[in-house]
Structures are given as C-alpha cells and as structure tokens.
Design brief:
This protein is mostly beta strands and 591 residues long. It has 2 helices and 41 strands.
Length: 591
C-alpha cells in the first residue's frame, strides 16, 4: 500500500525562528515550508512473467492407489480433526471460457491483471470495481459460478469488513450486485468449490482464533444473498498460515483442501462429498515456508496444480498426483515481486504500509518504495534540506482511513497534523506516537501514544485519516521500553501488533486483540537481549509479500537488515536476518 501525499510542515516562519532554527528548505507563498513530494510507484511494467499455456495438461490425472487411501492418517501431528463440511465443480475462475482457471492479481501500483491461457502476448488489464471508491479492498476471492449462468463470480473484501459480490467477464468484473457487512471477524476467506455435494460452490471462512466455518452456496447470485447460514466445521485452524481449496487433490471427483503451517508443513484434508465431511488432516509435505503465496489451479477435466511464489518473485507449479500428493515442481516464471495480491491464495494481505522514510541530520526526507521481495526500490527525495528539521516530530503510521495508504503525522509545539490537516493541540505531553494499524477490528488504523509519565494511551481512528475519538488508557509502566514500533501483524492472526524494545535490548510483542475492550494482549518475548545494538529500528510493513509485518534494523556501521515475521510466535517470531544494504547511517531516523 502506498502513502498518500504526506502534506507539509505548516509551522510558520515565526515558529521556526522561535525554535532557534532557520528553515533552509524552499518555502511556499505563505512562508511555510514546501510540501514534500509523494512517494511514487515505479512506472515500468509490473506484470508478472510466464504463460499459463506453459502448464497445459499433457496427461490425465493419476488416481491414488487404494492402499494409500486406506492408510490415511488420522489427527496427524496435532492437525485439527474436522467434522462437517465435498464434490469438485471444476475451475473457480475461468473467464476466457477455455475450461481452465485463470489468474487474477494486483500489482504494487494498484493495477489488476488477468493471466489467462489464451493471453499469449502478455497479461491484460482487468477492471475490478471497488464497492466503494474511497475504500480499498483487502482481498479478492474467486468463488466459481454461483448461479450457474456460465460466468464466475468474485468476492471482494473491503477494509471495513464488507463483502461484495460481482460477476466476472474476460475484461473485468461488473459492479457489486450484493454486499453484506460483518466479515471483518475473519482473517481468511477461501473459495472452496462444492464441499456439500449439492452442485453449488461454497465458501470457507476462518477466525483469528482458528474456528473454521462453511458458508454453503445456494445457487443464487445477483442481488440475492449467495450463501446460506454458516456451519461450524471445527477449531485449531489457526495453526495454518495458508489454506487453499477449490480443487480436487486426490482425483476422486470431490473437492478437498490443502493447508500449510508457518514451519512449512503441508496437510491434506480429503473431502468426502455426499457425507458432507473432511477426513482428518494428513501431512503430505515439508518446506512450504519457502513460498509467500500459494494458490490452486484446476480445469474441467479434473486436473489440478498448485502455483507457489518465492520471496524473490520466482513462481513454480506443482501437478496434483492424487491423495493430496504433489509431483515435482516446474519453473513457471520470475518477475512476480511486484505482485501484492494473488486472488484465491487463501489469505488477507497486509494493509496500510509497506515503505520506509528516512530523515537526514539536515532535515531532508527520503522515501523507499517497498517491493514484495524483501527490499526497496531506489530512494526518492521527498523534501530538501531544512524542510524537516529535528525539532519537528514525525511518524509514518499505518493507514488511518480506508484508502490503504500510510499517513504521515507531524507535530511541533504540541500541535499535531496529518498532512496539511490540523488535528489538535496538547500533543507535547507524549514522547512516542505509534500507528501499528487496526487494533479494534473496525478496519481503520489506530494510534498509540506514550506520555512523559510513561502511560500508554489508545486513540481510535475516526476513519478520516485526520481525527481520533477520545483517548482510552491502556496502562502505565511503559518507560521500560526505549522503542515502540509496529506496522501490521507479526503474530500471524491478521490483527496488528505492537513491538517494544526493552532498555535491556530484549524485544517483546503485544498482540492486538481486535476489539475495543483492551486492545493489547499480554506481552510475549520475541527477541533475546541484543536488539540495542541497532541504532535505528523501524516497522516497514509487509515487504516480503506474505501478509506479515517486517522489521528493519540498522547497526552502527550503517548496514540495514530485514527481520521477516514467520507467524510462529515467541522467539521464533522473526527468522534470521537478511541484509538490505549499507549506507543507512545517512539518516538520523527511520520511520
């Protein structure tokens, strides 16, 4: 997600002189400093490489041997046993009519593209109409042809939890014909194919606590509610980082589910069709944490594949061989590092921030556009020397409204601004402002503020990007931390979290709860002493494409490192560090 115009430092010349500083940067006509530039998405072609025709079927699928089916493991390695939820219905997103799934994806510049078998000359732009032009969407879910008219439907999940339905064509999806609220209670929505055996595609939904529900399709679309009342399937599904359905993974003509854990284990859940149940999970593979997004592809003949993307942007396809077992992988293409959403990949991507701002000692400001490969584009100068002097506080916070763009807050003399907009006075009582994202589940990023008595306060966003409701006390004793940061989810439950560094160098996470009654849970130790060796520490949002927030740390030599969240929790919350680059001592601060 890209930040909107950061706005300008509106401290007038009189205030600047009173602070004993002379702003050296260019001034506007009214004597105020010139507004910083927008951070710009790369202008080059961001379409993903490869052609779906390269994985055209060459043989019929292999059925699994009977003996192998009879040896199905029950309750393998702590996987949730499931009771309730059966027949495959072919591809869920075939918009070109060739009988095979097409791929819809969105790039970092906000464009959506269709990768179809017939598109030999490259992917084509695909129109995705937002249900609300002012509100970004967090996920797009292909669910199949709900009303059996030959055209598939797409579900669009908004920032505030509204789910909208639109019919898809070869060039785009139509305007929303149905929508319903309350879907923000789930952190994953999965187009599952026909799991009940009635011929209608169904939807799966998982809560942050791990409860899995089935929403049975009723054969309707258009302005009608397309699903029946939800059915509870089972608990324990929070152990999975990715869940993919919509395919037949054992060649028995019935829809199944694959799921992977943060440690890379893959489980197969066999659909039983008419009985309306899954069999218990069976472990079928390891090493799947190599990939940040996976999705399923099927055709009407019963063949299926799994498409998987690595952090470096390389994609691979795995043929389904039967009994949930996948064959050897085949390289599809590189060049997927500018894709931030692959529809149907079974997860809600990070929202609100994926960039870094650096301020120099001279008051210049630079921005770094995050890619999805764990690094950044070349820096862009956003403001010249003197434009952002150290006496002016600043924080780049996760989106405070529905646009999905980071907000820049700045303050001087107690006056707080969001961009050009004045928010209020009295903010000089705080020594730290942190915008980690949505803490109470309403879809808007919120603000945490620590006062000079070391009390932490919660400011709920009004959703406008420029205002907050009355503050609520979180608790005292926060002086034991010398750094408070956050920009998204580090625990893997889809809810934003606060990260705190102790004065002894220990790193802690306060998980977001997703509700108003106490927005932070009990702290969890996520890093042993030693984090004080970094003179700069920033939460940059998701720059690895897995939906989890990443940290950036700079040591005394100016070398920057990325710590990527794993979803595992505890001391395994972040994996081993990766080098981003050198020369970051250019900046006195990172945001």
């Amino acid at each position: 997600m890209r930040p909107k115009r950061s706005g300008r430092i509106a401290a007038c010349t009189a205030v600047a002189l009173a602070a004993g500083m002379l702003l050296a940067g260019p001034a506007s006509a009214d004597g105020t400093p010139k507004a910083p530039a927008d951070i710009q998405a790369p202008s080059f072609d961001q379409r993903a490489g490869g052609h779906l025709s390269d994985i055209a079927p060459k043989a019929t699928p292999k059925a699994a041997p009977k003996a192998q089916k009879q040896q199905l493991q029950r309750g393998a390695a702590g996987a949730p046993s499931v009771a309730t939820a059966g027949t495959a219905g072919g591809p869920l997103f075939d918009v070109d009519g060739d009988g095979r799934d097409d791929i819809l994806y969105r790039t970092l510049n906000g464009s959506s593209y269709l990768k179809a078998t017939k598109n030999e000359n490259g992917d084509t732009l695909f129109g995705v109409h937002k249900a609300d032009d002012n509100e970004d969407f967090k996920d797009v879910v292909p669910v199949g042809d709900l009303d059996h008219n030959g055209l598939p439907e797409l579900l669009q999940l908004s920032v505030t939890g509204r789910l909208s339905l639109a019919e898809a064509y070869s060039t785009g999806a139509g305007y929303s014909s149905w929508s319903g609220g309350g879907w923000g209670v789930y952190n994953k929505l999965i187009g599952a194919g026909d799991l009940t055996g009635d011929g209608n595609p169904d939807l799966l939904a998982r809560t942050p606590g791990g409860a899995l529900y089935l929403y049975p399709g009723n054969g309707r679309a258009g302005g009608n509610d397309p699903f029946g009342d939800r059915v509870y399937i089972g608990g324990g599904w929070d152990m999975f980082s990715q869940i993919i359905g919509g395919a037949d993974y054992d060649a028995d003509g019935k829809a199944d589910v694959l799921a992977t854990t943060p440690s890379g284990l893959m489980y197969f859940y066999k659909g039983t069709g008419g009985a309306g149940t899954f069999a218990s999970g069976k472990k079928t593979g390891t090493g799947w944490n190599t990939y940040n997004q996976i999705t399923a592809l099927s055709d009407r003949s019963g063949l299926s594949w799994v498409l998987a993307r690595e952090v470096n942007g390389q994609t691979w396809t795995y043929p389904v061989q039967g009994d949930g077992i996948l064959g050897d992988r085949t390289k599809l293409s590189s060049g997927w590092e500018y894709v931030n959403l692959i529809s149907g990949q079974g997860g809600v991507p990070a929202h609100g921030k994926s960039e870094a701002y650096g301020r120099t000692s001279g008051g210049a400001l630079y921005g770094y556009f995050g890619r999805q490969n764990g690094n950044f584009e070349d820096r862009q100068q956003l403001a010249e020397n003197g434009s952002f002097p150290s006496q002016v506080g600043m924080a780049l916070v996760s989106s405070l409204d529905t646009s999905g763009e980071a907000n820049m807050l700045w303050w001087y003399g107690g006056d707080l601004y969001s961009g050009d907009t004045y928010i209020g006075s009295g903010w000089d009582v705080y020594n730290s402002l942190v915008g980690v994202g949505d803490l109470n589940g309403d879809g808007y990023g919120d603000l945490l503020a620590r006062d000079k008595s070391n009390v932490l306060w919660f400011y709920e966003s009004k959703g406008t990007g420029t205002g907050f409701f009355t503050r609520v006390r979180v608790g005292g004793g926060w002086g034991i931390y010398n750094k408070l940061i956050g920009a998204g989810d580090v625990t893997g439950d889809g809810i934003a979290d606060l990260v705190a560094r102790g004065t002894d160098g220990t790193l802690w996470a306060y998980p977001g709860t997703g509700h108003d009654g106490g927005v932070l849970g009990d702290r969890v130790k996520i890093g042993s002493a030693g984090w004080n060796s970094f003179n700069k520490l920033a939460a940059v949002g998701d720059i690895t494409g897995d939906g989890l927030a990443d940290l950036m740390a700079v040591d005394s030599s100016g070398t920057a490192y990325r710590y990527s969240a794993t979803g595992l929790g505890g001391l395994s919350t972040f994996n081993g560090r990766s080098t981003i680059g050198s020369g970051w001592n250019t900046y006195t601060e990172l945001h």
